[in-house]
Amino acid sequence: MLDTARSRPDVHLEELDVHQLVRAQMDVDRTVATAVEAAEPQISAAIAVIVERLRAGGRLIYAGAGTPDCSPCAIGRRPGSAGEGRLGGRRRTGQLHFGRQGGPPATGWAASMPDSGSMDVVDQLIRDEAPGAARAVAVVDAPGLVDHALSLSQDVRVWCDDWRDARTVDPALLVEPADLAGVDLALVRLPKALAALDEIAARVQRSPDLQLVAGGRIKHMNHSMNDTLSRHFAQVSASRGWQKARVLRASQPLGGDAKWPQQRHDPHLGLVIAAHGATFGGTKLDRGTRLLLETMQVCGADVLDLGCGNGVISAALARAGHRVSARDVSWSAVAATRATAAANNVEVDVSWGAGLEGYADDSFDAVVTNPPFHRGVAKESADTLEMFSEAARVLRPGGDLWCVFNSHLPWQRELQQRLGPTRRVAQDRSFTVTRTTTRG
């Protein structure tokens, strides 16, 4: 409307109704195409010059609509600059600021566009903000950075919490979190949970010259991440944003041991619950799981806890006399379930993986699940819906699938269509518990 007011001073916007306002805006928009068409020869000539200069190593600096607060954005790499491989050719330090970005530094800082390859924007930014050499490199939850790490050092140690990420990496490079200690460079994708970041920062300690570079999307970052890293490093700073991404840099490690997994006794259940930093629910009993445990009546000897989290469902089932198998796509969940089982002196057969692959037909009398509908910070239900369809294969005839989920999700309908008759057993303001019986 501001454009309309400026270009049509004869029109008094406050006197128009909605339809007249829309038509006035459309009249203004039509002038844009006419103006562009008239200037097409000059625009084409300008583009040709820009392309020629970029190919010669120049940069295009643009400020205007589409950039935060009209701060400049640059395309192209400055060849031969001292800071080649770093944003703007220089290290930028300072506290992490969200919202208004402020103007660019007096030096005319601008973000260079690195070669993308198979990396996404966050991986590119981590790569360009990291040192150019290292004795030993830890790559955490960032399989897209493995090749770059190998170009820096022969000692590369990769840990991915998500099994789907880990299977994309050469098995010879995969390590346990305890094996990350002693590197002098850690390249990290920022996790969703602060506790997970705390464990990562603790695990990579030992070398006095350790530098940690952790990146993520700005919309998923917060100041508490700085505070978490500051408990493990004397120096923590942030890069400027680039294409809605940012990195945190940490150096001067403070040392100390990793205090993970952690444990807590739940007096309501009479169980000890263990958790790693990235374990869903931590050492607490989340409301959905509590509702499931209070209402489910599992029959049969062999039960699968799918998406086992901190292992509290597995421990409760094993204590009740069931033979329990458990699986989760998260390493932190698998390790926590094993620790929870050990703390409660029960046996649970735990595996790291996705879905029901590898389980034989007719393996279980019941499947119990509090399934995820996120992968990291992104909503993703495909694996859970595939599991609903696959459950009929591993369940014995007449077997049950007990499921708890957020009530806004249409999963009762999905279970009915994919697996069999589904009955709502319990529901509160947030969660629904269902029991699905296999057909036949």
Count the DSSP helices: 13
Radius of gyration: 27 Å
How many β strands by DSSP?
A: 19
Which structural class do the helices and strands define?
alpha/beta
Oligomer: single chain
> The biggest beta sheet, please?
7 strands, mixed
Strand content: 15-25%
**What is the topology, as strand order, of the major beta sheet?**
13-12-11-14-17-19-18
Distance between the termini: 63 Å
Form type: globular
Overall pLDDT metric: 84
Uncertain runs are 64-72, 77-116
Helix content: 25-40%
Give a description of the structure.
It is built from 13 helices and 19 strands. By secondary structure, the protein is α/β, with parallel strands linked by helices. It has a 7-stranded mixed sheet, with helices on both faces. Helix 7 (194-203) runs parallel beside helix 8 (223-230). The protein is globular and about 80 Å long. Mean pLDDT is 84; it is low at 64-72 and 77-116.
Describe, in short, the structure shown.
The chain is an alpha/beta fold. It has helices spanning 2-7, 18-38, 40-55, 121-129, 146-152, 163-166, 194-203, 223-230, 287-295, 312-319, 331-343, 382-394, 411-418; strands spanning 60-62, 73-75, 136-140, 155-159, 185-189, 211-217, 233-238, 245-253, 262-266, 271-275, 302-306, 323-328, 348-352, 364-369, 374-375, 378-379, 395-406, 422-427, 431-437. α5 (146-152) links the parallel β3 and β4.
